[in-house]
Design goal:
about 500 residues, mainly alpha, two-stranded antiparallel ribbon, globular, transmembrane, membrane
Length: about 500
């Protein structure tokens, strides 16, 4: 414990330099600005702003990413509350009571509940990361190729099964991601795969091109296709500086803590994002509300907003710990963060705390700083964020398209990457058109090479004996947890269908 405190204080020493504080503030500002725009969100914020950090040194870049990471999450909920349009799926549960609060003239209180709830969940999760991530990293040193293959399989199946109403759509999206990951030279045999004779594809498709194409360009095409079909939402008045009365704060505090308790464990497992814990937190508060003499749910219950907000940020916090300690992205946003580490030649995992300890502890310290900065930004400046929603859609999404193309071209100076960007944007549009989730695609692209390499190494060591994949207690435990999770999800979906039929 003492070593972690000393390392964290050293990290604060690196992060609290004037220039690094500027990067934290810029990251928070940009992340929130992108996250607050309808249809974008935290994963889009990280993807769009990834090329911006290439000119910075690694420490400054990741300190800026700390702000972007949480800033996007803060922004996700603003449109959910004001326009009933969640910036990301993790903010869906916040629309139910948050938008009702705004419709009843309590928009300032709703925004304050969201900001403080995100702060509570994020701070508690980041504190746990700071003290337990090194222990997780030491535990990960016992992992061999078979264990990492099991981790990847858990991530694949859990993500595909959880984030989509249809498991078939989730698996299909995962297959697309794995197919994209196979493009390029095979690292073990040296053979080229699916390059179509193009030398520029020998290194595969850059993860920045994939993420920006699927998320940003795909969203632009989707919005353009529906610009005359969807009704134009009317922004609600936000009012002056948001605030909470003492009674409202006392009512929201237990919900913030319960939501955090739901979010913490889900960030450490490959469940694909914050959807499950936010809905579980919302459902818990709703059941508790039914026992009250004067139920508030359906009228703009502050606890119905507080719990999902703290759950979402607690999940994001522990997802960062899982990424740093195990090298395992448990959400789409964490997958893009993994790509950012790889751009700087670093591989998150057990050795990251040894090889790049100064950077890791500076990043952890900047997460604390970023949460404070974001609270300062979001409470007094929420009306300004609401003004961003007044930008006409055709200007807004045209600007996003230009920014995406410039960012990709600046990173590689390759026309082929621009063509791939457009093609991947069309793919992203098709996925949205048929209701297929994007998170499995990104997880497949990121973890596909790890899964393939681990599988082939395990079989090579065992001389082709597949039982080596199940030879250790860790692999059996992981597969057992996966089986339990699949059964639990199946039972929940069957119960939901039964209720609908009734």
């Amino acid at each position: 414990m003492g070593d972690q405190i000393a390392d964290l204080m050293t990290g604060f020493g690196h992060a609290l330099t004037p220039m690094n504080l500027v990067w934290v503030f810029v990251g928070c500002l940009l992340g929130t600005a992108v996250g607050v725009l309808p249809g974008l969100g935290s994963s889009m914020a990280v993807a769009l702003l990834l090329p911006v950090t290439f000119s910075l040194d690694p420490t400054a870049a990741f300190i800026m990413f700390a702000g972007i990471y949480y800033g996007g999450l803060f922004g996700d909920s603003t449109t959910a509350i004001l326009l009933n349009t969640p910036g990301a799926s993790s903010a869906i549960a916040s629309t139910f009571e948050g938008h009702r609060m705004a419709k009843r003239g309590r928009g300032p209180q709703a925004l304050a509940t969201s900001a403080i709830g995100a702060f509570v969940g994020g701070i508690i999760a980041t504190t746990l990361i700071a003290f337990f991530a090194p222990a997780m990293a030491q535990l990960a040193t016992v992992f061999g190729p078979a264990e990492y293959f099991a981790l990847a399989i858990v991530a694949f199946i859990a993500t595909a099964a959880v984030v989509s109403d249809s498991a078939i759509k989730g698996v299909a999206a995962l297959a697309i991601g794995l197919a994209l990951a196979l493009i390029g030279i095979d690292g073990i045999s040296g053979a080229s795969r699916f390059t179509f004779g193009l030398p520029s594809l020998l290194d595969g498709i850059d993860i920045v091109v994939i993420t920006v194409g699927l998320l940003a360009v795909g969203e632009v095409l989707w919005v353009a296709s529906r610009i005359h079909k969807d009704p134009v939402p009317t922004a609600l008045t936000v009012g002056r500086r948001p605030y909470l009365s003492k009674s409202e704060f006392r009512e929201a505090m237990p919900a913030w803590l319960r939501g955090t308790a739901w979010g913490l464990p889900f960030g450490a497992i490959p469940a694909g994002g914050s959807e499950i814990p936010t809905f579980l937190a919302y459902g818990t508060e709703r059941r508790l509300d039914q026992r009250r003499r004067d139920p508030q749910f359906g009228k703009g219950a502050i606890r119905g907003l507080a719990a999902p907000e703290s759950a979402a940020n607690a999940t994001a916090g522990t997802a960062m710990g899982s990424l740093l300690a195990l090298g395992l992205p448990t959400s789409a946003t964490a997958a893009i963060m993994l790509a950012a580490f790889q751009q700087y030649g670093m591989q998150p995992g057990p050795l990251l705390f040894t090889r790049n300890g100064d950077l890791v502890w500076a990043l952890l310290a900047s997460l604390f700083i970023g949460m404070v900065v974001l609270l300062i930004i979001n409470l007094p400046f929420a009306p300004i964020w609401a003004k961003l929603l007044d930008i006409p859609k055709h200007y807004l999404y045209a600007g996003i398209s230009v920014f995406a193309c410039l960012g990709v071209y600046a990173a590689s100076s390759s026309v082929v990457d621009l063509v791939l960007l457009v093609l991947l944007g069309l793919l992203g549009f098709v996925l949205r058109r048929f209701g297929m989730p994007l998170a499995p695609v990104l997880i497949g692209v990121i973890l596909g090479p790890l899964a393939e390499t681990s599988l082939r190494r395990t079989l090579a060591i065992s001389e082709g004996d597949p039982s080596a994949l199940f030879a250790s207690g860790i692999t059996l435990s992981l597969y057992g947890l996966l089986a339990v999770g699949i059964i639990w999800v199946a039972v929940q979906k069957l119960r939901t269908r039964a209720k609908v039929d009734i």
